[in-house]
């Protein structure tokens, strides 16, 4: 199983971009990089995921290095509402018959890190 390492905490200015790095140097070819966040007193919330290519959605961008050993979650215009614990997870996924990408690694293998806005 790939292990991930992240900074323990990060600060950024409101309205500015926040770059949250994640190192996953033991990643294998079929493992996806997932980011979740957990706002205080709420359950985890999916942010973004990718395999090899950079990805962007309405909430964030995921930049993956060519060798896939590290990645960066970019929150383009961070606000106080983005204050949360951000989880970088590397896990194998598969496509089920409904077309969903489904994780097969347990959630509790996550290493938690905090981002302060």
Automatic annotation (TrEMBL):
Biological process (GO), any one: adaptive immune response
Keyword check for Signal: yes
GO cellular component labels: plasma membrane
Keywords: Adaptive immunity, Cell membrane, Disulfide bond, Glycoprotein, Immunity, Membrane, Signal
Pfam families found in the cross-reference section: V-set (PF07686)
Lineage top rank: taxon: Eukaryota
Protein name, as recorded: Ig-like domain-containing protein
């Amino acid at each position: 199983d790939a292990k991930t390492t992240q900074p323990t905490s990060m600060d950024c200015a409101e309205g500015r971009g926040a770059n949250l790095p994640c190192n996953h140097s033991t990643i294998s070819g079929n493992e996806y990089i997932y980011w979740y966040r957990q706002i205080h007193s709420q359950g985890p919330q999916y942010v973004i995921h990718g395999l090899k290519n950079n990805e962007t959605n309405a909430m964030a961008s995921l930049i993956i290095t060519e060798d896939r050993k590290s990645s960066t979650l970019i929150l383009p215009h961070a606000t106080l509402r983005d204050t949360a614990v951000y989880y970088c997870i590397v896990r194998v996924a598969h496509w089920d018959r409904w077309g969903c990408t489904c994780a097969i690694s347990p959630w509790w293998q996550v290493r938690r890190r905090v981002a302060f806005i």
